Amino acid sequence: MELDYEAAHLGIVDYFRSRGLEWGGAAPGDRPAILVIDMAYGWTDPAYPGGSLQMSRAVEWIARLLEGARPLGVPVAYTTSPRPYGLWYDSSASEEEKAALAQAHRSSRIDERIAPRAGDTVLYKSGSSAFFNTGLHRHLRSLQVDTLLITGCVTSTCVRASVVDASDNGFRNILVRECIADRSESEHAWHIRDLTRWGKLLGVDDALAYLRKVAPG
Question: What residues are annotated to the active site?
């Protein structure tokens, strides 16, 4: 029998709330940034072992989000691995060495449909979380960011780890529904709901409406 993910999720939320336990992160703030997690060709191009059409479709939604956000002056940060999928780098390498490695391997380059622009930040990570062994926390604090719009892949691993770490580091999360993907539909269906423990789930249109409301643009 196929699991009804929505019913199962609502059952867990009801269980928490019936016992006075919290569910969901703090309400979004007024200093947002967009985080694009691992949307490099190694994940978005099915020609690679770790690539999937699921992620490729999410790229198109991320492009739409970025198109609406950039004129508003919303900061954008990307993550990738500077080696092909499955080959993590020596964390003692300099940022210049990491950038050179990423450029040398197409699988590590951000998909050109959402390529970083001047003023964007690209971070090279050695673990699942966008915060692990990177300068993301310091960068966001320097911009006084309080809210992250989460996009990218994969829902069950790197997105999940990044959302939890963002919350633990004091940031508020908006999970942009269409912009998050996993290779597995079932993994995605469960984790995208469970991640609302630490954030608010919004569609692209609602996320853009939020940005237009709060961004200084």
Answer: 158
